[in-house]
Amino acid sequence: MIGNLFRKIFGSKNSRELKRMGKIVAQINALEEGLKALSDDELKAKTAEFKQRIEAGEALDKLLPEAFAVCREASVRVMEMRHFDVQMIGGITLHEGRIAEMRTGEGKTLVATLPSYLNALTGEGVHVVTVNDYLARRDAEWNRPLFEFLGMSVGIVVPGQNPIEKREQYQADVVYGTNNEFGFDYLRDNMAFSLADKAQRKLNFAIVDEVDSILIDEARTPLIISGPAEDSSEMYRAINELVPKLEKGEEVEEGSEAVASGHFIVDEKQRSIELTEEGHEFVEELLTEAGILKEGESLYAATNLNLLHHVHAALKAHAVYQKNVDYIVQQGQIVIVDEHTGRTMPGRRWSEGLHQAVEAKEGVQIQAESQTLASTTFQNYFRLYNKLGGMTGTADTEAFEFHQIYALDVVVIPTNKPIQRIDYNDVIYATQREKYDAVVEEIREVIAQQRPVLVGTASIESSEYISQVLQKAKVPHNVLNAKENAREAEIIAQAGRPGAVTIATNMAGRGTDIMLGGNWEAEVAELNEPSQQQIDQIRSEWQVRHDGILEAGGLHIIGTERHESRRIDNQLRGRSGRQGDAGSTRFFLSLEDSLMRIFMSERMRGMMQALGMKDGESIEHKMVTNAVEKAQRKVEGRNFDIRKQLLEYDDVANDQRRVVYEQRNDLMAMEDISGVIANIRQDVVADAIDSYIPPQSLSEQWDIAGLEAHLKAEFDIELPVQQWLDTEEKLYEEPLRERILESIQKAYEDKEAAVGAGPIRMFEKQVMLQILDNLWKEHLATMDHLRQGIHLRGYGQKNPKQEYKRESFTLFQELLKNIKHETIRILSHVKVREEEEVREMEEQRRAQAEAQAQQANYQHDEAASAITGEKPQEKAEEETAQPFTRDGQKVGRNDPCPCGSGKKYKHCCGKLN
């Protein structure tokens, strides 16, 4: 009541916004006469003037009236189309980063030229996003003369372009393309081999046409680039055959030195292995005999990183991981056993090739399944833009979602002319047969008046069924579905001819106007070099048809069932009555329609049947319309939950994705990463020492023999740590740590001096990028496995979403740690002899990247439940508090620590950080 009073006094928020923008439009209109007096060259020169003013610090908002006025004047001269005042308001709305709800036929394509021109003046580019390739090409070509007159370049990004073409198109001031293509290009750029291979520039400003379709309807499914995981099955099997020939050794004290026997040593504490000198030579010998390694080639050569990786994985599988302890073999698959709980973890896989090595060891099938290379959602992709605006004929019903997820407000723009369309009440029948009989009867009545009819269906199956019914009734018609976009435009453009009947799925035909009387320009285009007389005749014949249809009542829309979303019903209605034309709409429903059957309450259905609907009888009642809208709101709420749920899961991955992509871009941009490597080495060495010399511990607790072995295994350096401690009484913990780090750093500097700084700098960069890419792909696979099974936690009274966040954070910490450790391990072990080796390694990486791009699959059709592994109705009650359940037995603060260290729990695993 108070809200209504405020609205009466101050007006609604929308009306206040329109009033404010109306003042800006008045400023634009005041400039019109002055601009008309300018020559073409003087008008074109305005673009350079605006750019200079922006460089001098002038804000775009201040420049807006002049820029919009110049764009309008150029449009009049080049395209003979003048932007209406309401189109100016639409342009201002888009520039301010909001959604303009504009009715069908109000010229949204022309509206987008205004903010595109203004924002392209900064030189940072504008992306105009459409729903399909046909519309992207059409809009780009339609607006190209206007932009080029104003000195702006236009680009189009479509599937099938090679990387060079893509880069050229993205350099344009205004780039047209589909949501899928922009999203996939972003993902491809973050898999690029080098900065020079990236296509997109900074994501500055996006104008999304049909914003509801792109940001809401298509947001239920993520964008995924997947590819065949590298099939190294034969290599795993070949190495697996060689490993049993190696003998496990141990370190034996000989005087003051520890001497390693056998071919490899196992560090059970760290669950790692190290080849001895003898083992290293023996492995090289075996690999050479097997034809895997070339004669005289070293296992530690820069080009053999993958081979070294396979050997390490196979050794770990045989010597460290035990059957029925660390894993079990179940139905031909390796299933991991949780070391803490003893429970199996189906679906989870070890990383770094270990799982495949264990599969080879046990003789089961080595899985080289398709793996996710990169993924994102439209919600998270479009939120990367500095500014986002959108246009649609129907957004107000989804205003809450636009605001909550994208922080976008909806402004309802008034029509240029009053709407004259008549929307009749819904008509409901008991059965679908009766409904379709009534639809055919209505079509006959309308085409008898020489009016065109558009029949909207919710599925291709329904459209084909109606087509069969019409064929039996001998009613000529066209069937239109979304299989062929170019053909779709042709059919829908001629759907306005007198007596034409067109059947279309509800989403088909968006973005193309149904011209009453047909499209006379299309008729002219079919003629070979038509004379002016022929053109005038076609135009006058069209005018007669057009006026006759308007007089008869305009285009009639028939909806054969209500869609799940009210918005899509409104879109169908919006195809009629454009630009103040006459028109009418009516929906025909039955109690057998899927929406009514699934979502309408039993009580309501019973009441309708109780009304005594006889065969062929229909009912029209406000109660029916309300019941239908209530059912639609139920579905909209359910679909919103699916989208919100997908976003909440992807938000977790998105934070990780941004960190990794930023780190990758920084690495590619840096010529010299030696500083980064030095910092990483410091962290890795500190971690290694902490494992054997716990911080602030007594010297009796130090495991010096283990530390020496670990330094040899991880950093390829032999340090007499025990000897230092024996001979230097005052060598305490901190000085010891510093000496170890300095020794490792010195060994690396000696390696650099032997080869030269140039090759080492290149090698560091190649190694780190390769490790980052490989481990990130493995991390994505692990996250996929986690997400697919996480909904099962709900049965254990745990919140799946919180569990997912917690576990994915732990996995991400492990990823960052593994990237550091693996980078330093490889850099310490691999021998770089000459620059040519590094170049060869670089070429290997480039070839892999190109092969990966060629084999990649681009998906945007997975069901959301397959992504999150849970259906919305199966979710645990996440908003309510869940009783806490402990995984294991309670451990007291003063009890012995269950890890077996012998310390009290509060001094060991229970220590507060």
Your description of this structure?
It is a single chain. With 913 residues, this protein is α/β, with parallel strands linked by helices. It has five domains: 2-227 and 378-412, 3-Layer(aba) Sandwich (Rossmann fold), CATH 3.40.50.300; 233-368, Pre-protein croslinking domain of SecA (Alpha-Beta Complex); 420-620, Rossmann fold; 646-886, Helical scaffold and wing domains of SecA; 887-913, no CATH class. The protein has a seven-stranded parallel sheet with strand order 3-4-2-5-15-1-16. Helix 15 (305-319) crosses helix 16 (354-362) and helix 22 packs antiparallel against helix 23. The chain is elongated and about 105 Å long.
Return the structural class. Answer: alpha/beta
User: What share of residues is helical?
Assistant: 40-55%
> Over all CA atoms, what is the radius of gyration?
35 Å
Question: Quick one: biggest sheet?
Answer: 7 strands, parallel
Count of the domains: 5
Low-confidence stretches: 861-891, 909-913
Beta-strand residue percentage: 5-15%
Q: Say how many strands there are.
A: 24
Q: Might you state the CATH topology name of the largest domain?
A: Rossmann fold
Can you count the helices? 35
- Termini separation (Å)? 55 Å
Second CATH tier, the architecture of the largest domain: 3-Layer(aba) Sandwich
CATH superfamily of the largest domain: P-loop containing nucleotide triphosphate hydrolases
Shape: elongated
CATH class of the largest domain: Alpha Beta
Widest sheet, order of strands: 3-4-2-5-15-1-16
Whole-number average pLDDT? 81
